[in-house]
Design a protein that fits this description.
Elements lengths: L1 E9 L3 H8 L7 H9 L5 H19 L10 E10 L3 E6 L5 E6 L2 E9 L2
Antiparallel strand pairs: 1-5, 2-5, 3-4
Helix pairs in contact: 2-3
């Protein structure tokens, strides 16, 4: 059985989220949560929240309730770019500098080993 969790419009660049997301791909959920909890990147908090949501979705769909978190692993984890927020800042000589605030859509799929 598998479960999916998605978090949309996270105010972080997809490149920065992808760096942390690659550390947990293929790991079991217990190990992935430990890695995310002790990673000093800002993206780790959003990914940990999404992973906990996926685990909660998994246990809601599980009828028997006998599967532990050490038997569940991260099957796939991906991030896509969301809409970019465009902001403008005044620059020298009366010009305008464009600032792009990128957003991300995080998607995590977990599955049991059985």
């Amino acid at each position: 059985m598998k479960a999916v969790a998605k978090q949309k419009y996270v105010r972080m660049s997809p490149l920065k989220v992808r760096r942390v997301l690659n550390m947990i791909k293929g790991k079991n959920v217990e190990e992935a949560l430990n890695i995310l909890h002790f990673t000093p990147k800002r993206a780790a908090g959003a990914i940990e929240k999404t992973l906990r949501s996926a685990v909660s979705n998994f246990y809601d769909r599980d009828e028997s309730g006998t599967i532990s978190t050490s038997d569940i692993f991260v099957k796939s984890a991906s991030v896509d770019q969301g809409p970019t927020l465009r902001r403008f800042r005044p620059m020298s000589m009366g010009r305008v500098g464009r600032i792009r605030r990128k957003t991300s859509h995080i998607s995590i799929t977990i599955e049991d080993k059985g």
